[in-house]
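Why do we care about 3D structure at all? Because function follows from shape, and shape follows, mostly, from sequence. That is the central idea of this module. The next example makes it concrete: a single protein chain, its amino acid sequence, and then its structure expressed as tokens.
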Amino acid sequence: MFSTVESIELTDGLVRFDPLRPWLPGPPPIRRQIPVQEVDDGYKKESRAPLHVPINTMRLSSALELNRYSGMGNPLQPAYVFHGCGNKVSSAILESFSKWGPSIRFSRPRGYFSCSPAVYWTNSLAFAIGWCAFTETGQWLPKLNEREQDFECVVYVSKVIMGDLESPAGTCLLSPPSTEIEETDLVNWCNQNVAKSPRKGRIPPPGCVNAEWSIIGSRIPKHTVDGLGTAMSDEAELFKGVDVSQIWIYAACDESSSVSMANLGVEIIHVTNKVNGCQ
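And the structure:
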């Protein structure tokens, strides 16, 4: 659900090729990204034990046939949640995900549910893959024919029980909008988070007074629902059988909740159409 860059042009004109971890949601901003080694070193100093989540590499068409992740169930109590990472996947990035899972230390501010850094998850495997394609190409639907489009992404899967997650500042699960006004309020809140500087403090979710939640969950905003609907009218293979109005996003907004969700990782799905897998 976000994109990766693997080289940095420094102020002296040199280029550093550190492996990097991506941002979510949306394309990376024009600023320094976080090298994998920098975060790895931090966790090692804290004596955090690596997770060693298994990595399964497969074609996109095979990933869509994973029956164990079919359906989304109750979004208030999702059985599985998915965190997507976009193109330019390297072995170093895969290893980092396997050791630490999605980490807030790689996150950027100004996401849908928080102007401060957060790690974003979804209850839909299809949406996780679709977001990876969207942030790279502007299209929700990667081509299933490997000869038409080079596509690669990583989806980290965690099996969760929402009530058991570490959430020191509490969990806020928003009721799905039922009126046009509520739909507009959710869209406006997301847009405000994307636009606001985190230095000015977080914005309370619609209908809430408190802004400082550890975990925030909500159905995707209407402009995203509409965008998926338009894409599906053209080529719906990725979202075949998916009720897009039931797709939710969950934001882990602090270190405790981020680590808690990562610690429940069961597998990493490395989707690639490259003949030799990850380069």
